[in-house]
Specification:
heterodimer; A: alpha/beta; four-stranded antiparallel sheet; B: 274 residues; 0% strand
Chain lengths: 282, 274
């Protein structure tokens, strides 16, 4: 008899309240080993709070298990299985890259030999003895990724790691994520960016006001969006003519958006009740 | 335990990389030498004093400076990490919160203690070479008491750090605690004693409530048990239980002060948001 593979991450009825503010409500999902999940949501939707609960750095309601280990009961053991890359680099500016990772290796119980290995993996071998404060934003994030990988954890939590990076640095970071995915890591990538999302993530979770609004593949999400998208065939006419026609009809150019998935569209597709409310208000 | 040591080593390395340690050690050395020199000049002759007189002169200075440094650095520790976003990152590592706190406590105590010892050490060597008489034992007891006070005040600073939202708030509270412990406490107690029927037991308990006062009385008892210098609470204690009894009680109280604040900080830290 075949047994289902136990999830790398199991979350049931996750809830979090900051004083009077309910930040997360009944969030439940499983993540299979080796999969890459994109965690999407507007600012304040609860993405970072979800990651913090998985890390067990704050009290929460509900159940979070990493590789079968309860985070609330055995947080330290659970964190041994997690590598975490925060949104902004927090490693000490005065430390060299080697010193910063050496400290993390000590905390994680990883052998020191892994430090140089990980520096090479993220292409920072030449910056080994350079102070963290002298690194670019992209280099710092790659250093943080190297730190997360020191103890070879099966689960990686990446909290908007490319939010403050330029396109080139973002691409380089994405290439590293792809490589790690191919090596079998389970990755949860919280992000605002949709470029290369299809390539990176096999599944999308959308948080809306602390609730899980969508859980499915990017294709499923795209299907929902397409249902409300009008595609105009210009039939060889110049776009300027089309714009003029729209203008004559009283529709300004601000109503015409590029044919790419916008955040608002994704969110509306994921949370139909939000659209209904918006329409009622209109 | 290796995690505690790793955090402590990191704390010491960070302290060595910052300029405050050098400044603090330099300030202590200069003041130790300066006070000794000036004290001797006031007595009519020019030159360096012996150890006992120097330690007596340094007592009040140390009771002002050491608690301020220890409280400030303790208070800035966790709150500073929280401020710069590093606390969540540290707590995301496979460690328990008490391990992080204990590591920071050990690292801070070692750093401040090292700076203090270097400062006093340099001054001690210079005075030993130049002074005519020497009482090294008393000097070492005095340095030990100052180190104990640093441990206590760092622990109190950590409590402040854990309950504060920001580094600035923590430093504000730390300075307030320092001001109360060093300046206000005595006046407050004298006022309380004169306006209430606080008995002898109450007086003794009152003395034990302030670690700065405990160290001051202990140091005076070791140096020269003068009732005028001891103050009302120290004098009462000495009269009731004698030098040996007073020393034992004060050392026990100091040991409790060394353990309780850091334990309280660890307990509070467990339930705080990162």
């Amino acid at each position: 008899m075949a047994h289902a593979t136990p999830p790398m991450l199991h979350i049931t009825n996750l809830g979090k309240r900051y004083r009077k503010l309910q930040v997360l409500t009944d969030v439940s999902f499983d993540v299979a080993p080796g999969s890459v999940i994109a965690l999407l949501g507007a600012n304040g939707a609860g993405k970072t709070t979800t990651l913090k609960c998985i890390l067990g750095v704050m009290p929460f309601d509900g159940t979070v298990e990493v590789d079968g280990i309860s985070v609330s009961q055995h947080g330290k053991d659970a964190r041994r299985r997690i590598g975490y890359v925060p949104q902004s680099a927090v490693l000490n500016d005065a430390d060299t890259c080697y010193e910063a990772l050496e400290f993390l290796a000590e905390l994680k119980g990883a052998p020191r030999g892994r430090v140089d290995e990980m520096l090479a993996l993220v292409n920072l071998g030449e910056q080994r003895d350079v102070a963290v404060g002298h690194l670019s934003g992209g280099m710092r994030q790659r250093l943080a990724l190297a730190g997360a990988l020191l103890a070879d954890p099966p689960l990686l939590l990446l909290d908007e790691p490319t939010a403050s990076l330029d396109v080139e640095s973002r691409m380089e970071f994405h290439r590293l994520v792809l490589r790690l995915r191919d090596e079998g890591k389970t990755i949860i990538l919280s992000t605002h960016f949709f470029d290369h999302l299809e390539e990176l993530a096999s599944r999308v979770l959308i948080l809306d006001s602390g609730r899980l609004a969508f859980d499915g593949s990017l294709d499923e999400l795209s299907q929902r969006v397409r249902g409300r998208r009008y595609v105009v065939n210009l039939n060889g006419n110049a776009p300027s003519r089309f714009m003029e026609a729209l203008s004559a009809a009283g529709i300004g150019p601000e109503r015409v958006q590029p044919a790419e998935m916008r955040w608002e569209e994704l969110l509306l597709a994921a949370a139909p009740e939000r659209q209904a409310t918006a329409e009622e208000q209109a | 335990m290796s995690v505690v040591l790793a955090v402590a080593r990191k704390e010491i390395r960070d302290a060595l990389n910052s300029s405050w340690l050098l400044l603090y050690a330099g300030l202590f050395t200069m003041l130790a030498l300066g006070l000794s020199y000036l004290g001797e000049r006031n007595l009519g002759s020019l030159g360096f004093e012996n150890f006992s007189r120097t330690t007596a002169s340094l007592l009040n200075l140390c009771l002002l400076l050491a608690p301020l440094v220890a409280l400030s650095l303790g208070a800035g520790s966790i709150a500073g990490e929280r401020d710069r976003g590093g606390l969540t990152y540290l707590l995301s590592q496979p460690l328990d919160r008490w391990e992080l706190l204990l590591g920071k406590f050990v690292g801070l105590c070692t750093s401040i203690g090292l700076a203090t010892t270097v400062g006093f050490g340099v001054a001690g060597v210079v005075i030993a070479i130049l002074a005519s008489a020497m009482d090294l034992g008393t000097y070492l007891v005095f340095v030990t008491l100052v180190l104990a006070l640093i441990v206590v005040m760092t622990g109190i600073g950590l409590v402040v750090s854990v309950i504060s939202q920001t580094r600035v708030q923590a430093l504000g509270i730390a300075v307030l605690v320092w001001f109360i412990a060093v300046f206000v406490f005595d006046l407050l107690l004298i006022g309380t004693v004169s306006s209430t029927s606080l008995g002898g037991g109450g007086l003794m308990l009152a003395l034990l409530l302030n670690p700065v006062e405990i160290v001051r009385v202990l140091a005076v008892i070791q140096l020269e048990p003068d009732l005028q210098i001891l103050g009302p609470f120290g004098s009462y204690l000495l009269e009731q239980v004698g030098t040996g009894g007073a020393t034992a009680i004060l050392v026990a109280a100091l040991a409790a002060w060394a353990a309780l604040p850091v334990s309280l900080a660890a307990w509070l830290f467990e339930s705080r948001e990162a």
